[in-house]
Amino acid sequence: MLDRSIQYELMSGESWRDPYPMYRSLRDHDPVHYVEGDSHRDGFWLLSRFDDVFDAARDTGVFSSSSGLTVERGTGVDMGEASPIVFLDPPDHTAFRRLVSSGFTPRQVSTIERAVRSFVAERLEGLGDAGGGDIVTELFKPLPSFVVAHYLGVPLEDRCRFDRWTDQIVAAAAQGQTDDPESGIAELLEYFTDLIQRRRIEPGGDMISQLISMGEATVPVLWILGFAFTMVTGGNDTTTGLLGGSTALLYHDPAQRRRLAENPEMIPSAVEELLRLTSPVQNLARTTTQNVELHGTTIPKGSKVLLGYGAANRDEREFGKSAELLEVGRNPSRILTFGYGAHHCLGAAVARLQGRVVLEELLSRFPDYVVDPDRMEYATGNYVRRPLNLAFSPS
């Protein structure tokens, strides 16, 4: 039975601590929920059940990405021909994805594992030697930035500037302020325009060099700039959310953590369960290209629809009565953490690699680690749930 008294609230900061009771109520009582507009946004719809979100994510013809992925009014990223791949629908999306997807296969991603493991081990050893510290600041935040810079071929001497731009752009995207002159986007695009010219003369093994090698007729410079922007905005705070959330979840369930520490071969499948429960990208929007009938409700053409990945990933209808519990041996066959279909996240294998390596190194060194999730602060922004800090002690 529908209960229209339930109200959906866009989360941000402290309200990210526990959005799950609200999600549960929406799934059970108002799975096609309408949110009234205000001064910042028009009204929008929220889907919270797994099957509904799954179907919408795959149907790019009806649920389009071209009008932006947020519900705020007038906050689309207008970069012209450099428009990031996430704002493209097929067939343009398909053509661009085909060009870059070879660099993100599990086999290709495995080539960076040694560098990732070395980075993780060094940071964990530093935390151990210091008797603890903020594991987000020391590891979970810099690791994905290191990986993105590695993929894009950013030279070591430029990493400090790259990290600063990354912080600015991620913060601007979280607030729906990518059109702000202080967002760092202009500086980043200017930098990569110069880097592209350098890589024409001095190619490397990075993705920028690979795209350049295909020729301007196949991969225009503006496409490469859009790809760089996508890597920065999609590969940083999301991975921090996975790593911070996973560490907290395992701390709260010592039996599940002990099971992984004693059976490290289970870690790859446990990462799937942790991806499901953390769902760093909690929701993203689409725009309907026609009327949609769902559960007796009509969503009009031209409506913004928020796909509730975080809510759907805890749906009992898909994952059973224990859907909201951590079960490291669950190995779910379908999750929405990376979206689905044409817009399935290109960096999924990269995120999985980072999650696996961090858990392997963390649990082998500090199987009885202590963290303080109650004092963990959450980043502002309505779409990505990630911690800003997490106090860590080796034991």
Structure description:
By secondary structure, this protein is an alpha+beta fold. It is built from 17 helices and 10 strands. It has helices at residues 20-29, 50-58, 92-100, 106-109, 113-130, 135-140, 142-152, 159-174, 185-201, 207-213, 221-235, 237-252, 254-262, 267-278, 309-312, 316-319, 348-365, and strands spanning 32-35, 44-47, 63-64, 133-134, 284-288, 292-294, 297-299, 304-307, 370-371, 391-393. The strands form 3 sheets. Strands 1-2-8-5-3 form a 5-stranded mixed β-sheet, covered by helices on one side. A 3-stranded antiparallel β-sheet has the order 4-10-9. Helix 5 (113-130) packs parallel to helix 17 (348-365) and helix 7 (142-152) packs across helix 8. The model has no long low-confidence stretch (mean pLDDT 88).
What keywords describe this structure?
five-stranded mixed sheet, three-stranded antiparallel sheet, 395 residues, single chain
Topology overview:
Elements: H1 20-29, E1 32-35, E2 44-47, H2 50-58, E3 63-64, H3 92-100, H4 106-109, H5 113-130, E4 133-134, H6 135-140, H7 142-152, H8 159-174, H9 185-201, H10 207-213, H11 221-235, H12 237-252, H13 254-262, H14 267-278, E5 284-288, E6 292-294, E7 297-299, E8 304-307, H15 309-312, H16 316-319, H17 348-365, E9 370-371, E10 391-393
Parallel strand pairs: 2-8
Antiparallel strand pairs: 1-2, 3-5, 4-10, 5-8, 6-7, 9-10
Helix pairs in contact: 5-17, 7-8, 7-11, 9-11, 12-14, 12-17, 14-17
